[in-house]
From TrEMBL:
<dbReference type="GO" id="GO:0005783">
    <property type="term" value="C:endoplasmic reticulum"/>
</dbReference>
<dbReference type="GO" id="GO:0043812">
    <property type="term" value="F:phosphatidylinositol-4-phosphate phosphatase activity"/>
</dbReference>
<feature type="domain" description="SAC">
    <location>
        <begin position="119"/>
        <end position="457"/>
    </location>
</feature>
<dbReference type="Pfam" id="PF02383">
    <property type="entry name" value="Syja_N"/>
</dbReference>
<dbReference type="InterPro" id="IPR002013">
    <property type="entry name" value="SAC_dom"/>
</dbReference>
<feature type="region of interest" description="Disordered">
    <location>
        <begin position="566"/>
        <end position="585"/>
    </location>
</feature>
<dbReference type="GO" id="GO:0046856">
    <property type="term" value="P:phosphatidylinositol dephosphorylation"/>
</dbReference>
<protein>
    <recommendedName>
        <fullName>SAC domain-containing protein</fullName>
    </recommendedName>
</protein>
Length: 585
């Protein structure tokens, strides 16, 4: 895949396996762009000349408008591949910001003077990943359901009265909405694609003009056991709904999105089976404000300010995972240094109790547990003994929730679902840092031991190599609780770096994250892309857009003001602006 700078008529030209897109600024309207399409087999081709500079890229990440200039963001080579059998994940290491409505911006994007400098830092910090082989934004159970829907589409069953079935299938095939990190900035390209008929849309989708990414971590390794080879992988996906820097964003917003929310999936794969265990983490789902590390102000009255968003959040978890066990690692102490944590924990439990009293679904599908890990460490042999202590404590809930287990068809490689995970642990401490990391590692180890025993394989305690790989995968993005002198020094250094980051860079990085995910309150209008050649548009699409479009703008979309961080399918209205709803339907 290549991008050509400048295009034959200015603007930019993108090509992927014989399919060209030429993007030109509209002659009259700022932020509006004409797109010429040259699919394979098209009688017309763009004019390529020696003055154009071709750059190899891997895909388009989206379009953003900053300081009244519009930038197309493309991921460039090289990328870091984390490849194994049937798993091919690549990490974005660099990206190009192509200015679409004027000459290339003079400063390089790595220069602090460039308006997209902080955006570039976020997209190239090693946490942005994609896969062209599988949906990296979805856990195994979700991917199996998509596979089942596609199989059903090939062998149709009698039509039902479920009006939402088609929409749900389409959403799943586009990835898990909450974890597609660049969903907001992809909106102009998605809306452009959705005006195509099915034939041209299929050709468009076969390319990387739309490259969905997640933010988080992926690691995988193979282990040789006496019974054969197994693969172990860990994936962490961060939700973008209330994304931001850790010390700038805490708590919950009015839509039910919480800060620092992430889904962590541990997968064990043998020659004929695949097993997935999922857990989540996030800030305490209530509205508060911290001053420094000790002073906490909780918005009052809690039942008025925090209960409704709390219930939205818990309902989302029940919808996605069937049931939720809130596992709070906050301190219960009431002394001076930890009193704020005790108050926060009391508030969390009170919200859970109120929610269960007022809602039958939460009464049946949610539970709350305190586990004061700080106190347990002081009363026991230290941090090293915590994984076993946590594993023993959560064993009854693990037995109830289980894991997702599927057989692997030896001929087709498809998954045949045998059992589904029936609930999820929601782990938290104050800042979703070391204690949450320890909690997730411990729960993953306990769940993995159960599944290994069920398969007749050695457990983590019985296989040094399997235990080493599991610990290594988790310690790549968490602290695993095994404290050595070197790790003590690393922890001190990491703490110092966190506070330096918070003091010097967090505010700019937080703003850039909000721009990237559509949360910035002063967001500039979303760019509009229009096909110049209407031959690829359906009649229904043309008739639906023409009455609302300004003169000369076929298919123009209304300006989007991102009051809430989602970008579902858009429908034009009589006005030229609207606010996005809080949650996708």
């Amino acid at each position: 895949m290549r991008v050509y700078l400048p295009g034959p008529r200015g603007g930019v030209l993108i090509e992927d396996t014989g399919y060209f897109l030429e993007i030109l600024p509209h002659v009259k309207f700022a932020g509006v762009f004409d797109v010429h399409s040259y699919p394979p087999g098209s009688p017309n081709k763009p004019d390529l000349n020696l003055r154009m500079m071709p750059i190899d890229i891997v895909g388009c990440l989206g379009v953003v408008r900053v300081q009244r200039l519009t930038y197309l963001i493309v991921a460039t080579l090289p990328v870091t591949s984390i490849g194994m059998e049937d798993v091919d994940v690549e990490v974005v290491r660099d990206c190009l910001f192509v200015c679409l409505d004027g000459p290339m911006h003079p400063p390089d994007v790595r220069d602090h003077a460039h308006p997209c400098y902080d955006l570039h830092q976020i997209l190239t910090d090693g946490s942005i990943m994609y896969s062209k082989m599988q949906d990296l934004s979805s856990h195994l159970l979700s991917r199996i359901r998509v596979q089942q829907q596609r199989d059903a589409a090939c062998f149709p069953t009698p039509r039902t009265d479920d009006a939402g079935a088609t929409t749900a299938a389409h959403r799943l095939s586009e990835g898990t909405f909450e974890f597609v990190w660049n969903d907001y900035i992809l909106a102009p390209l998605l809306q452009l694609r959705d005006t195509l008929d099915e034939k041209h849309k299929a050709e468009f989708n076969a390319r990387s003009f739309i490259l969905r990414v997640v933010q988080g971590f992926f690691g995988a390794a193979e282990v040789e056991l006496p019974s054969g080879k197994v693969m172990l992988s860990v994936t962490s996906r961060r939700e973008w709904g209330r994304a931001g820097t850790r010390f700038e964003k805490r708590g919950i917003d009015k839509y039910g999105y919480v800060a620092n929310f992430a889904e962590t999936e541990t997968i064990l794969r043998t020659a004929d089976k695949i097993i997935s265990f999922v857990q989540v983490r996030g800030s305490v789902p209530e509205k508060d404000h911290w001053t420094g590390h000790l002073k906490l102000s909780i918005a009052q009255p809690v039942q008025v300010v925090s209960l409704r968003p709390f219930m939205l959040h818990m309902h989302d978890l029940v919808r996605m995972y069937s049931a939720v066990h809130a596992f709070s690692l906050l301190s219960n102490a009431k002394d001076a240094s930890l009193a704020a944590e005790g108050d926060l924990n009391d508030c969390y439990e009170a919200l859970c109790t109120l929610g269960q009293r007022q809602d039958d679904i939460l009464a049946k599908a949610s539970t709350f547990e305190r586990f004061d890990v700080s106190k347990r460490i002081m009363l026991s042999s230290g941090v090293a003994g915590m994984p076993k202590a946590i594993g023993k404590d959560v064993e009854p809930v693990l037995d109830r929730f289980g894991a997702t287990v599927a057989d692997i068809d030896s001929e087709t490689g498809k998954y045949e679902l045998q059992s589904e995970q029936q609930g999820v642990f929601r782990v938290n401490c104050r800042d979703c840092l070391d204690r949450s990391n320890l909690g997730e590692y411990s729960i993953s180890a306990a769940a993995l031991n159960k599944e290994l025993s069920a398969l007749g394989l050695p457990t983590l305690e019985q296989s040094d190599e399997l235990n080493r790989v599991h610990r290594k995968l988790f310690s790549a993005f968490i602290r695993d609780g095994v404290v050595t002198p070197n790790q003590t020094i690393e922890n001190l250094e990491a703490g110092r770096e966190r506070h330096m980051q918070a003091a010097l860079h967090d505010r700019q990085k937080n703003r850039a994250t909000e721009v990237l995910t559509g949360q910035y309150e002063n967001e500039e209008p979303t760019p509009v892309f229009n096909w110049v050649r209407p031959t690829t548009l359906t009649l229904d699409t043309i008739s639906s857009w023409l009455p609302q479009a300004p003169a000369g703008l076929l298919g123009a979309l209304p300006v989007v003001h991102a009051e809430a961080p989602t970008t579902p399918a858009l429908t034009p209205t009589d006005s030229d602006s609207f606010s996005l709803p809080a949650h996708s339907p």
